[in-house]
Amino acid sequence: MPLREGSIDFRVTAPTISSHGDPEAQGTRIERGLVTFLLVTMILLPAASTVSRRLLGRELPGSAVLAQHITLWVGFLGAMLATASGRHLALSTLDVIPVGWPRTAAWFLGQAVSAAVTALLAWASLELVKVEWTGFGQVAFGIKVAWSQLVMPVGFAIMALRFAWRAGAPCESLRCWGLRVAAALIAAGAFLLGSAVPGPALTWILSILVLLAFLLGAPVFVAMAGLAMVLFFRDAGDPIAVVAVPTATFNLVSSATLPAIPLLTAAGYVLAEGGAARRLVRAYKGIFGWMPGGVAVMATFVCALFTTFTGASGVTILALGGLLLPALLEDGYPEDFSVGLVTAAGSLGLLFPPSLPVILYGVVAQAPIDHLFIGGLVPGLLMIVLVAAYGVLVGVRSRAPRQAFHPREALAALWDAKWDLGLPTLVVVAVGSGFATVVEAAALAAAYALVVELLVFRSIGPVRDLPRVLVHASTLVGSVVILLGTALGLTSWFVDAEIPTRLVEWMTAHVHSPALFLLMLNAVLLVLGSVLEIYSAIVVLAPLVAPLGVAYGIEPIHLGVVFLANLELGFLFPPMGLNLFLSASRFNKPLPYLYRKAFPFLLIMSAGVLAITYLPAITTGVVELLARD
User: Fold this and answer.
1) What is the C-alpha to C-alpha distance for residues 70 and 219, in angstroms, rounded to an integer?
2) Domain residues for 349?
3) Could you tell me which of 106, 127, 162, 178 has the fewest CB atoms within 10 Å of its CB?
4) Which pLDDT tens digit goes with each residue over 573-605?
5) Rounded to an integer, what distance in angstroms lies between the CA atom of residue 163 and that of residue 228?
6) Helix axes 377-397, 335-345, angle to 10 degrees
7) Burial (0-12, 13-18, 19+ Cβ within 10 Å), 407
8) Three-state DSSP string of 48-109
9) Which residues have CB under 8 Å from 234's CB, separation 6+?
10) Pick from 537, 509, 513, 539: which is nearest to 525 by CA?
11) Could you tell me if 414 and 305 are in contact, meaning their C-beta atoms sit under 8 angstroms apart?
12) Same domain (yes/no): 199, 308
């Protein structure tokens, strides 16, 4: 579903936002049941391993490796559900194409190319499984590596069939089957590439088709995988070379921190479904309501904390907008400021644990995730304080009423939200104290969220609601994991072609100052962060930026925090900043209005990003202080 008529936007994968349908309604019962079972198993394995190590002095054998392979299965099952419901991360331009046959043709091309690319990925994955099938590699408990790999060809094949089916979605009933059959034939034709002779003409044709399909709504992972396979096919002159893409995807399981992605995603979705937003609003209003501009401060902190749970500012704006905007207006804040504040604050909090973008950056850039979280504490607080301070200034100018401080109500509200505030505290303490690894802390956080919502608040029914919540979480996990895997395939071609090396050589030859490099990096990330969805930006740009940081002697944790802070700012950068589109939809305001009202916050947060960039001590100093061995 478009966010606003005539706009170009990235679809957001979240429980409250659906692009084309509900994954719970469109996926099969087997998929939904299996992904729920696997997510619960993932929560239990690392958590049990942590307890076993602390009480018995040894971990559960094979639990860590098994959790990594289960992540692969959860990712592919989630990707299959995301395909069924149209919730893959994708650029949608259909709304600017005239209704009728032009829009139908554009839709068909995007879905048909997606079907062809995923069909070819299914073939390449099957070739990978054949190689491994005769080997003796095991995951754990006698499970062969090849058995784990089977989810890849099966998953890609089902995605190909679903893309072909969706190709006929916008047409009349009689024409639907014709378009679906045509898309299926195009997908089947992808296998004929094995007999094709690579050459410049074929390479250009395939590349243009993939890029055009991406512009017309094909998912980002399809564009990355398609381009990667075309490039490998061209360079090797042999279709078997495309196996490099699913190989890179499977190599995700070698990342020890990968399971943290589904675990923390599930934890955030469970808390969000259980009413954490309402409890947090009440708690922070009780704490800050007496201050000048107290309600604005409350809105800033609530948005930041809620974003740490969900890892996606779109969820924050859509879930909290209906609570925070009336509260600000009721206290006499100008509507212009109030809309701008909720729009800007929706991207705060991405640097705090257990934020998913931080984990994803750590996986892609191979940076220690615990150090990234520690290094992001002060920069994240700086961004919040700057926005909150502006809220105080406007509150004083507008003479917003200050409610009397009632200690009993404040304590009661804080006590009611103690369980919600406990989740990020649990992650920070568990990792910072060395009690648990990042994955184990993520599992403890997910188990904690389940206990809180199922047993303490009883806001989620274990049979009625929990499977639905976990299925929604799995669609985000699936869209991120499949994107990360295919991006690694494209990155492997970059490495083979020595693109990062050449980029480093060119930059160091033309830009000699690290300070100038950081300024250029800020500008590039700001623009690309407004165009690319944040997960796409991380998996595409981080492998290119990390070597440049090393070449200029920039500390990796500082570079990571600068990278993420710029993407956080990109949510507000016109004309394509995602928060601007979401607020326009949520508050029924025209985009030019949002551009103007968010601009003061863009300037304030830009000052914060520059301070983070050129004062590395606020990042590295905290890491040195708190992360000493």
Assistant:
1) 24
2) 260-626
3) 178
4) 887 677 887 777 677 788 788 888 889 999 999
5) 20
6) 170
7) exposed
8) HHHHHHHHHCCCCCCHHHHHHHHHHHHHHHHHHHHHHHCCCCEEECHHHCCCCHHHHHHHHH
9) 198, 203
10) 537
11) no
12) no
- Concatenated DSSP letters of 399-433: T---PPP-HHHHHHHHHHTHHHHHHHHHHHHHHHT
Which two three-digit tokens encode residue 526? Answer: 């700001």
The span from the CA of 2 to the CA of 93, in Å, is 9
What the block records as the tokens of 143 is 């499970």
H or E stretch covering 9? strand 9-10
pLDDT-above-90 percentage for the chain: 16
On the question of pLDDT at 16 being above 50, the answer is: no
Burial, 538: exposed, middle or buried (Cβ in 10 Å; 0-12, 13-18, 19+)?
buried
Q: What six digits make up the tokens of 416?
A: 């009611």
**In DSSP terms, which residues pair with 9 in a beta bridge?**
92
Q: What's the Rg (C-alpha) of the chain? A: 24
pLDDT digits (tens, 9 = 90+) for 512-562: 889 999 999 898 888 877 766 677 788 878 888 888 898 899 999 999 999
In a 10 Å sphere around its CB, with 0-12 CB exposed, 13-18 middle and 19+ buried, how is residue 254 labelled?
Answer: exposed
Bridge partners, residue 10, by sequence: 91
For 298, 361, 421, 479, 538, the CA distances from 306, given in Å and listed in that order, are 12, 20, 10, 21, 21
pLDDT of amino acid 4: 31
354 and 445 assigned to the same domain: yes
Query: Could you tell me which residues come within 8 angstroms of residue 164 by beta carbon, excluding any fewer than 6 positions away?
Result: 111, 112, 115, 180, 183, 184, 186, 187
Contact 341, 516 (CB under 8 A): no
469: three-class secondary structure by DSSP? helix
Residues 207 and 280 in one domain: no
Our CA angle for 24, 26, 32, nearest 5°, is 45
What is the rounded CA–CA span in Å between residue 570 and residue 45?
37
Nearest alpha carbon to residue 430 among 560, 263, 618 = 263
| 45 in Cβ contact with 346 (< 8 Å) | no
Which residues touch 407 (CB under 8 Å, ≥6 apart)? none
Instruction: Yes or no: say if 302 and 324 are a contact pair by the CB < 8 Å rule.
Output: yes
Whether 279 and 131 share a structural domain:
no
144 forms beta bridges with: 138
One-letter amino acid of 139: V
In the predicted structure, residue 76 carries a pLDDT above the cut 90: yes
Q: What is the pTM assigned to this prediction?
A: 0.75
pLDDT digits (tens, 9 = 90+) for 105-117: 888 888 999 999 9
Asked whether the predicted pLDDT for residue 65 surpasses 60, the reply is yes
**Would you say 260 and 439 are in contact if contact means Cβ atoms under 8 Å apart?**
yes
Question: Is residue 567 one of the residues assigned to a domain?
Answer: yes
Does 245 share its domain with 308? no
Mean pLDDT for 322-350 is: 84
Closest-CA residue to 544 (of 497, 483, 480, 613): 497
Q: How many domains does the chain have?
A: 2
Tell me the C-alpha distance between 160 and 191, whole Å: 12
| pLDDT tens, position by position, 343-392 | 888 888 889 887 888 988 998 888 888 899 899 999 999 999 999 999 99
Helix (H) or strand (E) holding 10: strand 9-10
Of 208, 228, 254, which residue constitutes the final position of a domain?
254
What secondary structure does DSSP assign to 134-200, as a single string? TS--B-STT-BHHHHHTHHHHHHHHHHHHHHHHTTTTS-HHHHHHHHHHHHHHHHHGGGGGGPPP-H
For β-strands 91-92 and 9-10, DSSP reports them as antiparallel
